[in-house]
Amino acid sequence: MIMASKTITPVQEKIIDLEIEKSKLNREKSMLVLNKAIFLYFSFLFVGVVGFINGYLNKGLLNLLILMGLCVLVIGVVPYIRTMHHEERSLEALIAGLKEGGMRSGSARKRG
Q1: Is the pLDDT of residue 5 over 80?
Q2: Highest mean pLDDT out of 6-10, 19-23, 45-49, 89-93
Q3: CA–CA distance, 65 with 42 (Å, rounded to integer)
Q4: What is the number of other CB atoms lying within 10 angstroms of the CB of residue 45?
Q5: pLDDT for residue 1
Q6: Angstrom distances, CA of residue 54 to CA of 48, 50, 51, 82
Q7: Which of 42, 48, 81, 83 could form a disulfide with 65 if both were Cys (CB 3.0 to 4.6 A apart)?
Q8: Where are the domains of the chain?
Q9: How many Cα neighbours within 13 Å face the side chain of 46?
């Protein structure tokens, strides 16, 4: 919570709003990648199981499809976790900067 004695200029308030919107966009992008990875994972499993039950696939191909599905899932989850961790740190830094006394020169968020 911001104390009444410390005021934020309209420009600083706009910068904070833009940083929050940028954070939301990054989270949405990583969510899209995660959703597609989960969809592909279940698609690989479905095709593998149905193909194996109907006799189109042998055990080796079934194992390969399951392994490929797991690889796709890992490839989708890792960027999501990294993005969430980065955005969480950025928002915590922004909140800490505001609690310390408003935004100093520029932004409280570490650029990189």
Answers
A1: no
A2: 45-49
A3: 11
A4: 16
A5: 46
A6: 10, 6, 5, 40
A7: 48
A8: 10-100
A9: 6
Which residues, in sequence order, are CB contacts of 79 under 8 Å at separation 6+?
30, 33, 34
Q: How far apart are CA 96 and CA 77, in angstroms?
A: 28
To the nearest 10°, report the CA torsion of 66, 71, 74, 78.
Answer: -170
Q: What is the pLDDT of residue 25?
A: 92
Q: Which has more pLDDT, 72 or 98?
A: 72
User: For helices 10-53 and 59-101, what crossing angle results, to 10°?
Assistant: 170
Residue 33 C-alpha from the chain's centroid: 8
Four-CA torsion 25, 29, 35, 39, nearest 10 degrees: 150
**Which amino acid type is present at position 26?**
N
| pLDDT value at residue 13 | 86
CA 60 to chain centre: 34
In the predicted model, is pLDDT for residue 100 greater than 90? Answer: no
- 12 alpha-carbon distance from chain centroid: 26
Residue 89 token pair? 């740190």
